[in-house]
Amino acid sequence: MKNTNTNTKLILLHPYIQKQGSSNRLWVLAFISVLTLAFLVTLIYTRETTFITTATSSVIASSNAPVSGVGSASLPTTVINTLLHYASKSNDTYHMPHSDLKPISDVLRKCSSPCNFLIFGLTPETLLWKSLNHNGRTVFIDENRYYAAYYEELHPEIDVYDVQYTTKWSEMKELIASAKEQVANECKPVQNLLFSECKLGLNDLPNHVYEVDWDVILVDGPRGDWPDAPGRMSAIFTAGVLARSKKGGNPKTHVFLHDFSGEVQKVCGTEFLCSHNLLEANQNLGHYVLERMDETSVQYCKNHSSSGSLPSSST
């Protein structure tokens, strides 16, 4: 019997076609999953990196930022006492004893910050003075240009200048007499020594030295007390003028004379720093406190007739 339904067709879907479609969808799904995973990994990594960078920057910034009261604070007492102890125990023959170091250190501790500290002479205590005047301005003046250059090269943090002294220790009497005669002119107690022709005044220091309001001045140079040595007459006179000529800051200036038992220190201290300004003294150190004076002043001391006496001989 023949099949009369000749128009009927049987259509079969080959299994391969079904598998191919499913495989494509799987590949697409896998590709999307990989992209999603990569995006998530990138997002997480970026956030973590940003967080670490921000946190690190914050730590660095906080460590570099000055804490209130710390940036301008002086050295701790224990550090100061340690520095003084080891400096006073130095093996150097010419080092200062503790009894001389302590008064200067005490004044520096009480000095308002930043403190301006001027020292005549490079000595075994040079690095100590720089350290004790923490956050302040410390300037050294020395008569030996070669040693000054060597010291500055050895310690670049030290601010040192050389000066040419034109005085002689043996001429002290004549130089003091000349300064007192010129007290109303070239050797005035209040003036800018940069423009002065006073024989005792130092007028060849860097310009800014005359413009600074010095809070503390230490005269520990130049070296030598023989007839042809420069002596400390000019350094003492200059210290007195700088102290009286301050334009601002604290009106008082502490002036220390080291080797106070020396003839030049005693005589010139009395003449130009004045006995009524002498706060305390021992055999090695004289401590004067000078106040700012009016520019019209024509005498160094309140008592015009000085209580000191000039040496009878200059030899």
UniProtKB/TrEMBL annotation:
Transmembrane segments: 26-45
Keyword tags: Membrane, Transmembrane, Transmembrane helix
Topology in membrane: Single-pass membrane protein
Localization per Swiss-Prot or TrEMBL: Golgi apparatus membrane
Biological-process GO terms, alphabetical: xylan biosynthetic process
Signal peptide interval: none
NCBIfam families for the chain: A_thal_3515
Protein name per its UniProtKB record: Polysaccharide biosynthesis domain-containing protein
Organism: Psophocarpus tetragonolobus (Winged bean)
